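Here is the promised in-class demo. Please do not try to memorize the tokens; focus on the logic of going from shape to residues.
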């Protein structure tokens, strides 16, 4: 059984930039204008981002559970003590398209944080499964990735806005939205059927386990149960 994840702490508070090498100036002049730099050059490494990256590397590989790593927001709050700064960092990272935040349907007021690259991999797997079952209307997945995800950073979206964004790709109809829901990319809200949660495909088994665990280290406790 793995040891518990210790609360994250940083010896120096605030934000850190990647150290520049002597060749950075020469390299940056090739293929870029003065006003255009790479994400890596500009990325600010805050305590929040470092903690997220650390917890991502410790996400277990579980048999019969195929999902990319994600972190509970409550777990992040327990690891980085400045909650206000965590919220600010998360908003900044969402705007920079580094990660997305998802409301979890566990009965708990918690959210999952997933790096964007991981989410797109998870989405790709869901799309392949969905296309294998039904080729009709599969163009909606491209519309969703190209027009909806970059424009809507919140955890939810209403029906009219969803249709409006999808319509940039084509004639969006209810059958397209149904396909997105069947693929696990959207979940209709129970209290308002005109609202949808953005969701992570294929994490149902993990969420089922999460609802049975109630400790301050909610996610780690669930992992312990699976590993025992």
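The designed amino acids, position by position:
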């Amino acid at each position: 059984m793995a040891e518990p994840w210790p609360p994250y702490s940083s010896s120096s508070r605030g934000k850190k930039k990647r150290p520049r090498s002597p060749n950075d100036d020469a390299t940056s002049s090739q293929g870029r204008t003065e006003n255009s730099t790479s994400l890596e050059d500009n990325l600010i490494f805050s305590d929040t981002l470092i903690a997220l990256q650390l917890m991502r590397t410790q996400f277990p590989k579980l048999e019969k559970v195929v999902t990319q790593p994600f972190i509970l927001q409550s777990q992040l709050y327990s690891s980085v003590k400045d909650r206000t700064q965590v919220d600010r960092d998360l908003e900044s990272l969402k705007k920079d398209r580094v990660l997305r935040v998802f409301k979890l349907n566990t009965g708990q007021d918690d959210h999952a944080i997933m790096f964007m690259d991981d989410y797109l991999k998870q989405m790709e797997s869901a799309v392949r499964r969905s296309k294998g079952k039904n080729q009709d209307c599969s163009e909606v997945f491209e519309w969703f990735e190209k027009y909806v995800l970059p424009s809507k950073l919140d955890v939810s979206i209403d029906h009219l806005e969803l249709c409006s964004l999808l319509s940039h790709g084509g004639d969006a109809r209810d059958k397209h939205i149904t396909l997105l829901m069947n693929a696990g990319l959207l979940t209709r809200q129970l209290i308002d059927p005109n609202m949808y949660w953005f969701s992570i495909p294929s994490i149902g088994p993990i969420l089922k386990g999460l609802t049975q665990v109630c400790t301050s280290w909610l996610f780690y406790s669930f992992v312990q149960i699976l590993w025992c």
